[in-house]
Amino acid sequence: MPASRPPGPRDPSGASPPRHLRGATLPAGADLDLLRARYGTDRSRLGVALVASLVIVPFLCWVVWAGVQRSDQDLRWESVSFDDSSSTSVKITYDVFIPADAVSVTCTLRALDDKGVEVGRAQVPVQADGASTSVVYALPVTARPSSAFVETCRLTD
């Protein structure tokens, strides 16, 4: 026969203690009204569930949207390297993966200094020579850059 649990303390009105105190061993004569006033009574977790769903649901929707957008790209690019050995220009090497039906692509290149200020920008046309094209471009700059990259590429006629 399993051991039965000793009954918890009850207040004179016959009510049991709050749910979070039901497994606790309380001294005899514990004032349950004082415990309810101090620690609160049973509360519903509806507010927590509502707030969590208001945060989690939009986040999950964004993750799905971003995944679909990223996986459905025909036009892709990848910055490979940059060479800032000159103070007047920076050589940017990048690859462009062009869809089969595209004729040309225009890529926006940017160079930033160590404070994040833009020191060079150019729109560079790229001709489609197959599935992928490697491009080396000398971007003129106004100051020595600390980074250079392809910001975006888009299909052009």
Brief account:
The chain has helices at 32-39, 46-71, and strands spanning 76-83, 89-97, 104-112, 118-127, 132-140, 147-156. The protein has 157 residues and is α+β, with helices and mostly antiparallel strands. It has 2 domains: 19-70; 76-156, Immunoglobulin-like.
Protein topology:
Blueprint: H1 32-39, H2 46-71, E1 76-83, E2 89-97, E3 104-112, E4 118-127, E5 132-140, E6 147-156
Antiparallel strand pairs: 1-2, 2-5, 3-4, 3-6
What is the H/E order? HHEEEEEE
Q: What CATH architecture of the largest domain would you give? A: Sandwich
- C-alpha-based Rg, rounded: 33 Å
| SS field, number of helical segments | 2
- How much helix, percentage-wise, in residues? 10-25%
Helix/strand structural class: alpha+beta
State the oligomer: single chain
Outline the low-pLDDT stretches. 8-12
Tell me the span between the first and last alpha carbons. 84 Å
Shape: elongated
Q: What is the strand content?
A: 35-45%
pLDDT averaged over residues: 82
Largest sheet: 3 strands, antiparallel
Number of β-strand runs = 6
Number of domains: 2
> What's the CATH class of the largest domain, please?
Mainly Beta
For the biggest β-sheet, the strand order reads 1-2-5
